[in-house]
Amino acid sequence: MSTSSNGNNDHNPELIGVYNQLCESYRAIDDFRAKLLGFLPLASAGGAFLLLTDVFVNTEKSQFAKPFLEPLGLFGFVITLGLYFYEIYGIRKCHALIKAGQQLEILMGIPAGQFTKRPRNVLYLINEPFATGVIYPAVLAGWIFLTLIFPQSNQPPAIETAFTAAIWVFVVGFLITLIYNLVLPCHESISRFLFRKKVDKPDQCE
After folding, report:
1. Could you give the count of Cα atoms lying within 13 Å of 155 in the half-sphere of its Cβ?
2. CB 91: neighbour CB atoms within 10 A?
3. Which residue ranges make up each domain of the chain?
4. Lower CB density within 10 Å: C or N end of the chain?
5. Is this model's pTM higher than 0.90 or not?
6. How far is CA 176 from CA 26, 132, 147, in A?
7. Tens of pLDDT along 5-47?
8. φ and ψ at 126, to 5 degrees?
């Protein structure tokens, strides 16, 4: 985002450059996260649908496909979990960029900048981390369901067990993300409180 020229900005060309670079970094991260949030559930749902179609519809491929559901489900779960961790870090990084952008806008005398006037959430809760807390746990729950649906290839599907495990995965993932979303504005204060260095009396050598 390029800033408009005014008296304050004309005297701070380096500050303007830093601000523009920060805006580009924020847009790049935000754009990548948005694309990943849209692509991940579509790709996961498509893959799971094709696998389950072979199992439940195509009887010829059923016995061949069943043994592969568990390892493929675990693989999808681990990959999605890694992307979820990366998303959590991306949320933290975007939050830091927003705070830095707000400080730069104050220094540059921009009263209505994109960071200063950025809405925190809708209805005190709905924002990007909230969407993360819905999409990623849902995809993780889907992979767990796929993993547990056939504990043994020669047994009927354990739909109730797999569904219960999927519900728990979704609820736990959603709550973790929701709590992280709520404490994110106070992240620095909490970190200083939890990890502050205690100054102990130095030990004296005898």
Report:
1. 8
2. 20
3. 7-187
4. C
5. no
6. 24, 11, 22
7. 444 545 577 888 888 888 898 899 889 888 888 888 888 888 7
8. -85, 120
